[in-house]
Amino acid sequence: MSMGQTEDEPTVGQLVANASKDLSSLVRSELELAKTELKSTAVKAGTGAGLFGAAGFLALLAIILLSIAAAYGVNALGLHPALAFLIVAVLYLLIAAALVLVGKRLLGKAKGPQRAIETSKESVEALKSIGKGD
Known about the structure:
Blueprint: H1 12-76, H2 81-108, H3 114-131
Helix pairs in contact: 1-2, 1-3
């Protein structure tokens, strides 16, 4: 026994071992939080990508099926068939562009593991203050 140490007080080695276990547990918790947040982000990104796919598929169907009918409708107004088809094609491309903008906005909302980053920074600050003896 060293001077000034009672049997109830932990040794420096025990304190270091306990700190090491606590730090290890903290790191595991931070990693679990990051994984959870990334899964949520992946779902949002997947949904945004799915909307891009749906927009492309619907634009293709619209161009194939509706542009023929619409172009004949415009042609019935007295315009040349080529001009009627061009007008309809431009209209459908504008609709497709609007769908792409909505998908892009959803992808823009996908973020990294914000809470995990924040709590990790707090943990580092706490460890720094302990190291300084505050």
